[in-house]
Amino acid sequence: MNDSKGFIRRFSSRRQPLDHSFLRDRLRCAKGYDRIAGYFSSSLLEIAGEEPESVAGPIRMICNSQLSPDDIKTARTAQIAVRNDWCSFEPERLLDTSGGGLVRNRFTRLYTLLKSGKLEVRVLPDHAFGLIHGKAGVITLRDGAKTCFIGSTNESKAAWRMNYELVWEDTSREAVKWVMEEFEALWGSPYAVPLADFVVEDIGRLSERRLLPKITDWIGRKKGAEPAPVVIETPVYRKEAGLWEHQKYFVNLVFDNHSGSLRKARFVLADEVGLGKTLQLAMSALLMALTGDKPILIVCPKTLLWQWQGEMRELLAMPSAVWDTAWWVDEKGIEHPVNGPDGIRKCPRRVGIVSSGLITQRSEVIEHLLSLSYECVILDEAHRARRKNLGENRDREKSHPNNLLSFMYRIAERTRSLLLATATPVQLRPIEAWDLLDILSRGDESVLGNAWSPWRRTPDCLDAIMGKWEFPQTINDQWEWVRNPLPPKSEHRDFEVLRNSLDIPDVQAVVPGNCLEQLNVADHARIDRMFYRFMREHNPFIRRIVRRTRAQLENQLDPETKEPLLQKVEVKLHGEAENEAILLPPYIREAYELAEQFCGAIGKRMKTAGFVKTLLLRRMGSSVYAGLRTAQKLLSEWEFLEVDEEEDEFIEGDENIYGIVPVSRSLTRNERALLERFIAALEASQERDPKYAEVRKWLIERGWLRVGCIIFSQYRASIQWLAEQLTEEFPEEMIAIYSSPSTSGIMHNGQWTAKSRDELKQMVSRSQLRLLLGTDAASEGLNLQRLARLINLDLPWNPTRLEQRKGRIQRIGQAHDVVEIYNMRYKDSVEDRVHQLLSDRLQNIYQLFGQIPDVLEDAWVAMALGEIERARKIIDALPKSHPFEVRYTQVERIDWESCREVLDSSEKERILSEGWQSRRHI
């Protein structure tokens, strides 16, 4: 043992190699090693510089990280944060350098140390003690003696072998005790968190990682092409938390059907809002684009075009192009001019995104889209493709499709695979779900069978699966339902036996009726025995509509981890009670009544879209300021009524409107007088909009600002007004506005600074912002897991928007177990009256659909025009019970994370950057 004084030794890399002269001898057969190191990502790569395996006892290392206080509130968030910190280091890039062999060897050794438990690592956020500049360690030598050292060295090859470094060793008891006290203070800190399990397993994966440089190396693997090598090092895995099991299930399902014996993938993805439909569809498109050589077409509402492109770029590093009126815009924002409508055929990327509004408005580019053949077509918000003759007792009528449904019927025959996405496959009647399957069936008999299939007879097939009639008892009748189409072998042992008995491959969907004669008695008994289960579990609706609910995923446990498949995030609603509506001061009540009179007068005189007739009331329901601004504009001399970005969605849904809506400027004397009185009533009073007092109360008195809050409005004018009010009262608070690319930024000390939306996202993720004001541009494609509170300054007349807003905080990765939402509405406003009509049924409607159907927008319009009975009929027309079960109740674990083979990212980018005009032959 060393005496109390011990001895001191000094080492300089100028005089001797530190890794050999200092560490090797001391660590060989040492009984223990405790180390204060630098950043954990780099320190892990060279824990002791050389031969850590020679240490006989345990090794403990405490390291720095960039974790924030919010990251370590729970074990779950700490694990995610450590994972993200490790991935941001991009350790996989070290393997692709000239020294990759040495790095791989170090990963192998490190993985062995971590898995065996010999090496234990804890990670300490910078905020706890500041950046760890003090590097020190205590070694318990083989004879039990202890020595400590302090120096400038980090745990890296450069520090011990290449840099100029100094090390000061002291063997005295006093020095060892002093260093150990420092180590234990850091090691035992309540802020110190263990190394994430993901990091340990990722080190193991990297130790055996093999790069696949060419697409043929992936497709030609012995096991065949699988998703994991393509996706495992995309940003969603390296910068986010990766895919959840239900998401991987759908991607696997699509890819297996597309690349397997069936050669087609045709499904409706009907997951609830907030479960990541866009990512599942985008990843499916990525895989199909890489395996095929035809275009991928994505059709979505105009308001979602850039969110689609952004999510593919940010989460999948996936090039794409958006059709923007008359040219293509790629993922880098570069415009690709074209000549004429046929230029839409010249998409500069394998994946092209176009607005469904082009189809709704019968744009001349449609025929050019229909002239191409596709690898896959994806339609988002697919419930907008619907029949016009929808109603009770009309299910037997031939469909009268709207423009979007008609287009989908035609393009379905020109694409190999087809994916439809909607959270509400049924808006009013079950036949809407059948219509979606009818789209999928065009050009694919495996969906609903051929023209003589009983699954093509409506409403008979719907009655069958909804239990409205007794199942057939004769084998001949049962066979008609089962054989046309007959599910593939992989779906159940029964179908495998029947297909084998008839020697019919999966690619043949429809089995001839006379084949029943070829089946033996045992097969006949099998059909009779399985028929009930077939109708409940293997009918076309169940097979083709993939629907998972948040409640289902929150309650199902992973068999390995025993944790829920989806983190449970409870939602607490405020503002729903009748007495929680905001009372209007007399001057606003007078103005509101004048706005109603104006909209009523316009509605009777003008045969135009509902949103134009009700524009003033929509804006007035948002804020007094927005209503005032709108009235002032209506009195201007414009030839056309300008349509803001917020109204784009309403125009897209109306097939009678094309582009900007012409509105006569020749207001009647009465209409002009009503607007002037409306403006005078608002300008005469200096009282503040009562919504501001409510916002302030919830932010400050209720503490919502402290935990982070987003405030939504449909209109930029309302958001601007609120930001100006808040910054006047709270000048030190940074108030972010997230709207269009040209109008996003930060209000601070009354000063406006423009910021990109990407910058705002990063500031929220780093907990640098706790108050964000957004238009509905922020309701899609924006992940706000850091924020735990949401205020709806107004209630959008399209209720789907409410669900999309909620989905920004009630989503995968939310740091809080409970999020709270406050819905604002003025007393006796249109919103309040519709809310009263809905209040009795709102919860039942939500449970039925998973979200509120957007057809309820018509109820708002009817109420605004004084048509109360029509509004009540619209609400009463909604189904009272779920028309059929479309649940995938069990989600099995799919292991992509351990994949050791990775397709080169540059090869992926090369292929995805090819345009629609190029042809690739594999």
Describe the structure.
The protein is an alpha/beta fold and 922 residues long. The protein has 41 helices and 27 strands. The strands form four sheets. It has a nine-stranded mixed sheet with strand order 14-13-12-15-11-16-17-10-18, with helices on both faces. Strands 1-7-6-5-2-3-4-8 form an eight-stranded mixed sheet, with helices on both faces. It has an eight-stranded mixed sheet with strand order 19-26-25-20-24-21-22-23, with helices on both faces. Strand 12 and strand 13 form a beta hairpin. Helix 17 (403-412) runs parallel beside helix 18 (431-441), helix 22 packs across helix 23 (521-537) and helix 37 (830-839) packs across helix 39. It starts with 7 loop residues before the first strand and ends in a 10-residue tail after the last helix. 48% of the residues are buried.
Topology:
Layout: E1 8-12, H1 18-27, E2 32-39, H2 40-43, E3 59-65, H3 75-88, H4 100-116, E4 119-125, H5 126-129, E5 135-140, E6 146-151, H6 157-162, E7 166-170, H7 173-187, E8 193-194, H8 197-207, E9 210-212, H9 215-219, H10 228-231, H11 235-238, H12 245-259, E10 266-269, H13 277-291, E11 296-300, H14 305-316, E12 321-323, E13 327-330, E14 335-337, E15 351-355, H15 356-360, H16 366-369, E16 374-380, H17 403-412, E17 415-421, H18 431-441, H19 445-448, H20 460-465, H21 475-483, H22 493-502, H23 521-537, H24 540-544, E18 545-546, H25 550-555, E19 570-574, H26 586-605, H27 610-613, H28 615-622, H29 624-634, H30 648-652, H31 669-684, H32 690-701, H33 704-707, E20 709-712, H34 716-729, E21 735-738, E22 745-748, E23 751-754, H35 757-765, E24 771-774, E25 789-792, H36 800-806, E26 818-823, H37 830-839, H38 842-849, H39 857-864, H40 868-876, E27 901-903, H41 905-912
